[in-house]
């Protein structure tokens, strides 16, 4: 009686592989070990850190030397001075300063409106029908380090239609009229500006030329 033997898989038993396969496996493992041990070491990282620190130090030293050079050549250009309060407001008729704000012109002279009186009666100036005298009391202070000029002729009153009124020719009849003169450093004074204008003008703006080489300043009156 014959016996049945199941047919064996041609790949069974699994091949153990020749010795060369085992050696190749060991070689690949050795390669992996070498790659992992060949990374950055502590001395290398320390060298990179020291090199980066030296570069930062050199850049900072160059900046300091450049700043010192600018300071020696021109101290004013090395530092950006803080703008004087009031020097950056009232620069245009469309955006005047408010009545309670002080403005400072390019010559570092500060202007402040102290009081406004309308329809004023002044002895020696006969009233005219349909017109009124407006007297504005101002304060001027020289914040600069050099002498500054002032002149009542530098002031005008501008209505909402941008029509300008100059100082009244009779201004000298008013006690304390500003007139003209000079202000020394840290000196100040009060003076009155007199304008003769149509009665009932509103939304007036005081314009201040402040000198030929300065930008005008504007303060809203009402």
How much strand? Answer: 25-35%
Cα distance, first to last residue? 132 Å
Please give the domain count. Answer: 2
Radius of gyration: 44 Å
CATH topology of the largest domain: Immunoglobulin-like
Low-confidence stretches: 20-25, 29-35
Largest sheet, strands/sense/barrel: 4 strands, antiparallel
What is the CATH level 1 assignment of the largest domain? Mainly Beta
Q: How many beta-strand segments?
A: 10
Whole-number average pLDDT?
A: 81
Gross morphology is elongated
**Spatial order of strands in the largest sheet:** 1-2-3-8
Helix content, binned percent: 10-25%
Structural class: alpha+beta
The run of helices and strands is HHHEEEEEEEEEE
Q: Enumerate how many helices there are, as a single number.
A: 3
Give me the CATH architecture of the largest domain, please. Answer: Sandwich
How is this structure best described in words?
The chain has helices at 19-37, 42-73, 75-78; strands spanning 103-104, 109-117, 131-142, 148-151, 155-158, 164-166, 180-183, 188-198, 205-208, 217-220. By secondary structure, it is α+β, with helices and mostly antiparallel strands. Residues 20-25 and 29-35 have low confidence and may be disordered.
Any descriptors?
alpha+beta; 10 strands; 2 domains; Immunoglobulin-like; 4-stranded antiparallel β-sheet; elongated; 222 residues; single chain; 26% strand
């Amino acid at each position: 009686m014959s016996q049945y033997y199941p047919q064996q898989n041609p790949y069974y038993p699994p091949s153990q592989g020749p010795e060369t396969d085992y050696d190749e496996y060991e070689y690949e493992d050795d390669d992996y070990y070498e790659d992992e041990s060949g990374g950055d070491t502590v001395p290398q990282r320390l060298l990179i850190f020291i090199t980066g620190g030296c570069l930062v130090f050199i850049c900072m030293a160059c900046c300091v030397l450049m700043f010192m050079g600018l300071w020696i050549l021109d101290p004013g250009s090395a530092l950006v001075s803080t703008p004087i309060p009031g020097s950056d407001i009232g620069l245009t008729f469309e955006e005047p300063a408010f009545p309670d704000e002080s403005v400072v012109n390019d010559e570092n002279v500060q202007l402040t409106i102290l009081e406004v009186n309308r329809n004023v009666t002044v002895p020696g100036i006969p009233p005219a029908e349909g017109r009124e005298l407006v007297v504005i009391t101002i304060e001027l202070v020289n914040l600069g380090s050099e002498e500054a000029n002032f002149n009542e002729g530098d002031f005008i009153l501008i209505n909402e239609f941008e029509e300008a009124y100059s100082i009244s020719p009779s201004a000298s009849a008013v006690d304390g009229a500003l007139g003209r003169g000079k202000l020394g450093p840290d000196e100040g004074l009060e003076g009155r500006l007199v304008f003769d204008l149509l009665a009932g003008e509103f939304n007036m703006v005081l314009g201040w030329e402040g000198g030929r080489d300065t930008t005008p300043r504007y303060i809203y009156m009402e």
